[in-house]
Write a structure and sequence with these properties.
This protein has 253 residues and is α/β, with parallel strands linked by helices. It is 27% helix and 28% strand. It has a single domain, classed as Nitrilase/N-carbamoyl-D-aminoacid amidohydrolase, CATH 3.60.110.10. Helix 1 (15-31) runs parallel beside helix 3 (62-74).
Length: 253
């Protein structure tokens, strides 16, 4: 499977800028033969925007219809984060559409990060798994992927690919360089981790978005600047896959 990843500055509340960036990236990803493009966390309307609650849209709303049109035009699927308006509040959510613009999965972030996110958002309470062209996949968002129990739970369900919109900021570069590849290797699955770059308000994003293979290999990684990464997932080699889940010996006392 060929996958693409968009690393870009946050639109900072400018949703038209976000759609323009997505349209260009989807077009290029589609031309390259990618089946799915992964973009950052709350790209609609931007992670550090002061207007998130006001700009949030319901699941299945106008943003989703526009995104579906972009997917069909580019012949490429899309996974991205967005601010979801719901009757009980706002969620930090992720949406996955196929190349025909049809919804494959919808997910609400479980592990909200810091006081700002916990003040803005409601917490999600369930995983979202789906079939992506014959591979069992799942969605997580940013901080979620740093929790080994979540990765282990998904791996136990047979998930082989996790798509992760993120908004990782300085100084947490270790997540991109060490944590994500280690999670992939330790649980025998691939991870696509799509981050922002640049500055938004008081945040400086890490960049360093990456696609990690199921043996922990880094298939593609960005630097500090905007980038479109494209990589082919390798076949899983049983001789190289982690056996930690089977070998684990819990100790009591």
């Amino acid at each position: 499977m060929r996958l693409a990843l968009l690393q870009c500055p946050s639109p900072a509340g400018d949703t038209e800028a976000a759609f323009a960036s997505l349209a260009e990236a989807l077009t290029q990803a589609g031309k390259s033969g990618a089946q799915m493009l992964v973009a950052p966390e709350t790209l609609l309307p931007g992670y550090n925007s002061d207007a998130i609650a006001a700009l949030a849209q319901p699941h299945g709303g106008a943003w989703q219809a526009r995104l579906g049109d972009l997917c069909r035009s580019a012949n490429c699927g899309l996974t991205l984060g967005y601010a979801e308006a719901a009757p009980e509040g706002t969620y930090n959510s992720a949406l996955c559409l196929d190349a025909k613009g049809q919804e494959l999965a919808h997910y609400r972030k479980i592990q909200l990060y810091g006081p700002r996110e916990t003040a803005l958002y409601q917490s999600g309470h369930s995983y979202s798994t789906f079939d992506l062209n014959g591979i069992k996949a799942a969605l997580l968002i940013c901080y979620d992927v740093e929790f080994a129990p979540h990765i282990a739970a998904l791996a136990a369900q047979g998930v082989q690919l996790i798509l992760v919109p993120t908004a990782n900021m300085q100084p947490f570069t270790h997540v991109c360089t060490a944590t994500v590849p280690a999670m992939a290797a330790n649980h025998g699955l691939a991870i696509v981790y799509a981050n922002y770059c640049g500055v938004e308000g008081d945040l400086t994003y890490c960049g360093r978005s990456l696609i990690a293979g199921p043996h922990g290999e880094i298939l593609a990684q960005a630097g500090d600047d905007p980038a479109l990464l494209i990589a082919d997932l390798p076949a899983r080699d049983p001789q190289r896959l982690s056996t930690q889940a089977a070998d684990y010996r819990p100790i009591s006392g």
